[in-house]
UniProtKB/TrEMBL annotation:
InterPro entries: UPF_C3orf38 (IPR026698). Pfam families: DUF4518. The lineage of its organism: Eukaryota, Metazoa, Ecdysozoa, Arthropoda, Hexapoda. This is NTF2 domain-containing protein.
Length: 269
């Protein structure tokens, strides 16, 4: 098999040998899980736990935001079944659409806002696949989260050059070396029928002399490059770096704050 090529906004090229992904037939697609997780970030923790309790019919108690998100996603049949819940308020939907810069009439009722939101998500999915006829049209959304001594610092970059520069600068500033967990619990991938491929990875951070100083987790959202054969572009990526000592075991995706909400996801062969 030819080796697919991953392109980070046409700036960095990484080769993966014989990499293919299985389909996973969950009720919600991975793109739907990503969108819903993003929306749920605007729900208060108490309301989120209440929503998880309602959806699981009181059979599951959640203690953290990540557990509540996972319960909601795993036990929901459709996006609409979540959006129509009482805890997903008209105000939340309006604010989310405003944040996404979607023109919205403030007189719309909740049902109309839901229709507007689902149409927006559908258009974004279409933009990422069918309309990819020129690499200059690609929207990049990339961020680096640094968590040191309880302080979370979010650094963002838009263009491909800026993304590469940001990652290199963070690595150099903190003198970091990345060691991924290459087991089935540390790297997972999934391909959707509409063409989006998502890769999740986690591992440990090292400094000089191999000293372990923390953990990292990263997500890649890939789309096929229509201008080159058997190549993929990274449309969106997020990486979280966490300072931590006394690490007794390799980190897993199921433990990650960034990656856990996107599970379950199948392992690449």
């Amino acid at each position: 098999m030819c080796s697919p090529v991953l392109r980070l906004c046409d700036c960095v090229i990484v080769h993966f040998n014989q990499c293919k992904f299985k389909y996973s037939f969950n009720m919600l697609t991975l793109e739907e899980r990503i969108n819903i997780t993003e929306l749920l970030n605007g729900v208060s923790l108490d309301d989120l736990h209440s929503l998880a309790t309602t959806i699981t019919k009181g059979l599951l108690k959640t203690n953290t935001r990540e557990e509540a998100n996972e319960a909601i996603l795993q036990h929901s049949d459709t996006v609409d079944s979540i959006l129509n819940r009482k805890k997903i308020s008209r105000e939340l939907l309006f604010n989310y659409l405003h944040w996404k810069k979607v023109t919205t009439d403030n007189n719309l009722d909740k049902k109309s806002l839901i229709n507007l939101l689902t149409n927006y998500w559908r258009e974004q999915l279409h933009d990422g696949t069918a309309r990819e006829t020129n690499v200059q049209h690609t929207t990049t959304q990339n961020s680096v989260n640094l968590n040191s001594n309880g302080e979370v610092i979010v650094e963002e970059a838009e263009s491909g050059d800026a993304v590469v520069g940001l990652l290199a600068e963070v690595k150099q500033r903190h003198k970091l070396y990345f060691s991924p967990n290459l087991s089935a619990e540390g790297v997972k991938g999934r391909s959707e029928p509409h063409g989006l491929v998502v890769v999740l990875v986690c591992g440990t951070l090292h400094q000089s002399a191999g000293v372990v100083v923390g953990l990292f987790e990263q997500t890649f959202y890939l789309i096929r490059d229509p201008l080159t054969n058997n190549s993929w572009k990274i449309k969106r990526s997020q990486v979280m770096l966490t300072s931590k000592s006394n690490i007794a075991a390799l980190p897993t995706l199921s433990e990650g704050e960034l990656t856990r909400p996107l599970l379950p996801i199948q392992n690449p062969d």
